[in-house]
């Protein structure tokens, strides 16, 4: 049964053979199969050489782990180049010294089984190595050493044993773990290990703690946050196991980082042949410690392996590696091991640190006692390190970085150690620079992809709150651990905290409360990121006050949300915090705040990316502000063009439904009105202005107010519309034609209602009788705003009890789906089903029919006016 599988593809170039060897070696060692690694690497090297050198095609390498052994498959794309066969079907290799066939000869000699398979496009050679029997015996041994050469550890070495289940939750916690980190088992069991791990304590590892827990075996350094809030550096050995039911879990052995020798596996290559080593000399032997498994383009893995091997090579307590910026004026911390915390990650120090050339990173330097030269190595201030040796990394004479090894005791190093470290640095510098350039190119491509995606997302909304949320979500956790956005209404206003986001949702409220208590950063219109210590200072001051109050009250009176909550907030904002101005249209409209957790710094590349993002976000935020203002003005104007209230008409039911289409409900389009003219008489109108926008809104406002004014002056319907037509034409180029249905309504004492209507180019009003018949209640006449001399006339309609008059705009009748249109006939069909319904029910049924006619939402404004004369209630008998 297959239990694990790994695959990789290699290009037809010479370096692919070495890369394939590394891939197979790392895969099998990751599976814990060190006994068969060497044979597998030799066979893979031969088969990949055949594929990429002789066949000249890419090579696919697959490692498959089964219950009894490991199968390695190497395939190329040259099936025409066949393996030589004897006539009886067996394989024939010829003489062992001939050029071809040695790979197959080795397979026959070393592998338990092997074979060749052909397809139309591939040729695959595979071999299987069975697991060897494992009798009791020695796995690894070292020579007898004098006591002075043995690793130093406390008299009582504690090994914390922590078991983590398949969900990442702690299921076991032994006494040594309790002593090391201060947690009782009941406090910690059931919680994720990731809540405790300050990952990575040793920066530069390309694998996170969650991923490391899924590997079959893993060793390395990180930090564990103890009950007192401090981070303890540890060295960990993880082994993934499964129980009798097949449920996987991970056993983690943890020791203090300075006692790593208790758990650390022997380094690969440590058993170098003594004669060969003596022939090459100590400098070459020193370089052997830098040979490791990171891929050629894995910069973080390469740097981390470098500092760990450098520390081991010189028997130091700490080591670090810095990479130079492009202008070689600053060095950026990229990897360290053995330092009290990872606070130096991505911090920058000047090249000429310290006094004159003594502290220059361009030359090797040995500091016998740092306490005698304070600040000579800024990275080691307050770390307890007393002596240090530093050497430059150079490529073609150009400074690319600096490598240092430090010790807690003074006078540990001399020029001899500096020479050894410099030789090793010279041998690794080119690989580091190549990996750095590869990473830089990958980062630049990733940055471009990130900015393209961010621009698309920001351009996809004009909502202010959604824009703020997108800004925060794009920065957390990609660029920062937390962020806050301050907005500025105008130049005279103070910045207002508008949005807060943290990668840990449980900390958002505490972070927001903290930022609300402190003054916002100063507004600076100049571009670029600048540091801000406000959150850090406020959080630590609050934590200190809470701790002092707890001590004065005693443990019994200590609040449950006291020091722990304050320390948690302080750690959340304890790293570097930067402010990026949001500038749009030469005006500061806000600030984007980005922060890191305790003792972490930003990469310069991430800050540059954040600056690009802030410029795009500022413009999107300002566009959202302008759109919101425009929408508010549009909606306010739209409301002003509609009747303020609907009057009660005695003896007549009246219902109006108005739906403005379009985003933001732009002004213009359809309108309606219902108003009293004089005692017992009411005017009503429903119309549609051509187009939308300010010009249409002007005609809408002119029509509604002119109708009320002229009707109340005593003019009849035709005279009102003729004068309105003249007023529209007087607008000149701003005029718009208008369809309008205008009428006057007189409720009668006998329960009926008399209407006089004029239909100027508008959809005809429909009358629904009690028997279910529907007929037009007016005749069509010319629309307004086109001809100067109009001769209009009005028509009289009497609504009997139970009759309904329905007036709509063309947004109802012209409702479309593809080539179909609701039309007048469709509206009549709907109205015939409304017999006996109230005016409100008639209007609602018409609206529902319009909405259901097509899947897409309506694209035109709609106004529906329904008037019904109710039937008289039966007299009481």
TrEMBL record:
Keywords: Hydrolase. Residues 161-191 form the PAS domain. The keyword DNA repair does not apply. GO terms for biological process: regulation of DNA-templated transcription. One of its GO terms (molecular function) is phosphatase activity. Pfam families: GAF, GAF_3, HATPase_c_2, PAS, SpoIIE. PROSITE patterns: PAS. This is PAS domain-containing protein. It comes from Streptomyces violaceusniger.
């Amino acid at each position: 049964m297959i239990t694990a599988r790994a695959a990789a593809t290699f290009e037809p170039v010479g370096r692919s053979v070495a890369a394939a060897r590394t891939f197979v070696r790392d895969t099998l060692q990751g599976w814990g199969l060190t006994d068969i690694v060497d044979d597998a690497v030799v066979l893979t090297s031969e088969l990949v050489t055949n594929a990429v050198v002789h066949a000249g095609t890419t090579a696919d390498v697959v490692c498959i782990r089964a219950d009894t052994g490991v199968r390695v498959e190497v395939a190329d794309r040259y099936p025409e180049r066949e393996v030589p066969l004897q006539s009886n079907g067996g394989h024939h290799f010829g003489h062992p010294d001939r050029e071809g066939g040695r790979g197959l000869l080795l397979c026959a000699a070393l592998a338990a089984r092997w074979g060749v398979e052909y397809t139309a496009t591939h040729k695959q050679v595979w071999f299987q190595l069975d697991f060897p029997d494992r009798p009791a015996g020695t796995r690894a041994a070292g020579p007898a050493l004098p006591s002075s050469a043995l690793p130093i550890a406390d008299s009582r070495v504690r090994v914390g044993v922590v078991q983590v289940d398949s969900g990442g939750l702690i299921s076991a916690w032994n006494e040594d773990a309790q002593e090391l980190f201060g947690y009782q088992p009941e406090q910690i069991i059931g919680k994720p290990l990731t809540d405790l791990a300050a990952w990575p304590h040793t920066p530069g590892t390309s694998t996170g703690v969650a991923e490391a827990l899924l590997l079959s075996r893993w060793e390395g350094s990180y930090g564990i946050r103890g009950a007192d809030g401090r981070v303890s550096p540890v060295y960990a050995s993880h082994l993934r196991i499964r129980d009798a039911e097949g449920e996987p879990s991970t056993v983690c052995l943890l020791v203090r980082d300075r006692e790593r020798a208790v758990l650390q596996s022997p380094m690969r290559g440590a058993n170098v042949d003594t004669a060969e080593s003596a022939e090459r000399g100590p400098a070459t032997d020193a370089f052997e410690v830098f040979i490791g498994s990171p891929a050629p383009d894995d910069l973080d893995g390469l740097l981390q392996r470098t500092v760990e091997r450098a520390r081991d090579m010189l028997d130091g307590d700490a080591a670090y590696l810095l990479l130079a910026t492009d202008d070689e004026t600053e060095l950026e911390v990229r990897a360290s091991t053995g330092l009290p915390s990872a606070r130096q990650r991505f911090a920058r120090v000047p090249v000429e640190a310290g006094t004159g050339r003594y502290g220059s990173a361009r030359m090797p330097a040995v500091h016998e006692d740092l306490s005698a030269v304070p600040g000579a190595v800024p990275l080691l201030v307050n770390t307890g390190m007393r002596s240090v040796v530093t050497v430059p990394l150079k490529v073609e004479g150009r400074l690319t970085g600096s490598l240092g090894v430090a010790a807690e005791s003074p006078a540990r190093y001399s020029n001899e150690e500096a020479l050894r470290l410099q030789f090793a640095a010279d041998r690794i510098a080119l690989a580091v620079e190549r990996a750095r350039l590869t990473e830089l190119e990958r980062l630049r491509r990733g940055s471009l992809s990130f900015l393209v995606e961010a621009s698309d997302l920001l351009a996809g909304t004009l909502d202010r709150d959604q824009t703020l949320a997108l800004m925060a979500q794009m920065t957390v956790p990609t660029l920062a651990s937390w962020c806050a956005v301050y907005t500025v209404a105008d130049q005279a206003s103070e910045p207002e905290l508008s949005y807060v986001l943290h990668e840990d949702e449980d900390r958002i409220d505490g972070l927001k409360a903290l930022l609300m208590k402190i003054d916002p950063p100063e507004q600076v219109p100049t571009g670029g990121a600048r540091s801000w210590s406000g959150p850090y200072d406020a959080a630590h001051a609050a934590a200190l006050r809470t701790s002092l109050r707890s001590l004065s009250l005693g443990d019994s009176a200590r609040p449950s949300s006291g020091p722990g909550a304050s320390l948690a907030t302080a750690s959340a904002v304890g790293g570097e915090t930067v402010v990026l101005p949001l500038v749009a249209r030469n005006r500061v409209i806000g600030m984007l705040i980005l922060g890191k957790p305790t003792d972490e710094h930003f990469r310069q590349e991430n800050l540059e990316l954040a600056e690009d993002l802030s410029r795009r976000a500022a413009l999107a935020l300002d566009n959202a502000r302008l759109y919101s203002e425009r929408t508010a003005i549009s909606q306010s104007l739209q409301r002003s063009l509609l009747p303020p209230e609907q009057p009660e008409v005695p003896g007549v039911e009246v219902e109006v439904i108005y739906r403005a289409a379009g985003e933001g409900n732009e002004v213009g389009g359809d309108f309606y009105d219902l108003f009293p003219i004089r005692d017992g008489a009411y005017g009503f109108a429903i119309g549609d202005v051509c187009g939308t926008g300010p010009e249409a809104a002007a005609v809408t406002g002119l029509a509604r107010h002119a109708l009320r004014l002229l009707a109340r002056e005593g003019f009849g319907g035709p005279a009102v519309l003729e004068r309105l037509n003249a007023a529209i034409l007087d607008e000149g180029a701003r005029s718009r034609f208008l369809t309008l249905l205008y009428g006057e309504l007189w409720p009668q004492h006998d329960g009926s209602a008399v209407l006089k209507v004029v239909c100027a180019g508008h959809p005809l009003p429909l009358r629904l009788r009690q028997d279910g018949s529907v007929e037009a209640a007016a005749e069509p006449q010319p629309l307004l705003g086109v001809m100067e001399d109009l001769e209009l006339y009005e028509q009289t309609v009497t609504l009997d009890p139970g009759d309904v008059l329905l007036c709509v705009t063309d947004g109802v009748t012209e409702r479309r789906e593809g080539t179909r249109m609701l039309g007048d006939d469709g509206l009549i069909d709907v109205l015939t089903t409304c017999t006996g319904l109230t005016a409100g029910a008639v209007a609602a049924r018409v609206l529902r029919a319009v909405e259901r006619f097509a899947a897409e939402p309506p694209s035109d404004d709609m106004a529906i006016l329904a008037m019904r004369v109710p039937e008289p209630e039966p007299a009481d008998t």
